[in-house]
Design brief:
The protein is of the alpha/beta class. The protein has one domain: 3-Layer(aba) Sandwich (Rossmann fold), CATH 3.40.50. Helix content is 47%, strand content 15%. Helix 2 packs parallel to helix 3, helix 4 packs parallel to helix 5 and helix 5 runs parallel beside helix 6. The longest helix is centred in the middle third of the chain and has 29 residues. The chain starts with a helix and ends in a 9-residue tail after the last strand.
Length: 258
């Protein structure tokens, strides 16, 4: 295949993407890069003002955008997100599950309520969003779901047990859905970032995270665009034979943590 043909496989021209957790940081960056790759984008997060701002940026790039305030922990709001996307664009080609939050707390100090809340936002929300778009993707005969996990789902994160358990669950959920939905040509994959520039200053204030960062072979945090590039690849026809996969973007950190 000629190189020009290969490059065209990465285009997302006229596809419709939903980005959950698009109000700021990595989610915002992913939404903007999807638009630059040609997609129309539905941006979702709890804060209406934040996603309206992102939607305006996407329109400035020449693509269509829709902002839908959504709490991914609430199934009715997730169902409304899918419904609004279909009403506006008639299809859903891509879902990016980027919602995630954490707070540092040793297991002995972590309440049951706190544990449950982190699982619901980081893992249950991923499941609810994936399930909500699956019916539309089945009817289309094609779709791509990209879940954003974390290296803390691969290795222990001291004082962060619920977040790590939830992100490990995201990785396993990805594989389960990839197998179950393969007959419908719905591909489900995971991007697993380590340190990202948006959270970098905060990370360095936490002693065990500072110690981990010092061991990163490439000696820097990931740029948001580098996370978005992996998402674009997995969402595109270039990855048409890729499902259930995990792309780790951590500067080599987990290579040293066996």
């Amino acid at each position: 295949m000629a190189s020009a043909d290969i490059s065209s496989l990465f285009s997302l021209k006229d596809r419709v993407a939903i980005v959950a957790g698009a109000g700021r940081g990595t989610g915002r960056g992913i939404a903007l890069e999807l638009a630059k790759a040609g997609a129309d984008v539905v941006v979702a997060a709890r804060t209406a003002e934040a996603i309206e701002s992102v939607a305006a940026e996407i329109r400035h790039l020449g693509r269509k955008a829709l902002a839908v305030p959504t709490d991914v922990r609430v199934s009715e709001q997730v169902a409304n997100l899918a419904k609004r996307a279909l009403e506006e664009f008639r299809r859903i080609d891509i879902l990016v599950n980027n919602v995630g939050t954490s707070f540092l707390k040793p297991a002995l100090e972590l309440s049951e309520r706190g544990f449950d809340s982190l699982l619901r936002e980081n893992l249950t929300g991923c499941f609810l969003c994936s399930k909500a778009v699956a019916e539309a993707m089945i009817k289309q005969g094609k779709g791509s779901i990209v879940n954003i996990a974390s290296t803390e789902g691969l290795r222990a994160g001291p004082t962060n047990p619920a977040y790590g358990a939830a992100k490990a669950g995201v990785i396993n959920l990805t594989q389960s859905l990839a197998v179950e939905w393969a007959p419908y040509h719905i591909r489900v994959n995971t991007v697993v970032p380590g340190f990202i520039e948006t959270a970098f200053p905060y990370s360095l204030e936490v002693p065990h995270l500072r110690a981990l960062f010092d061991r990163v072979p490439l000696k820097r945090a990931a740029k948001i665009e580098e996370i978005a590039a992996a998402v674009i690849y997995l969402a595109s026809d270039a990855a048409d034979y890729v499902t259930g996969a995990m792309i780790v973007i951590d500067g080599g950190m987990t290579c040293l943590l066996g």
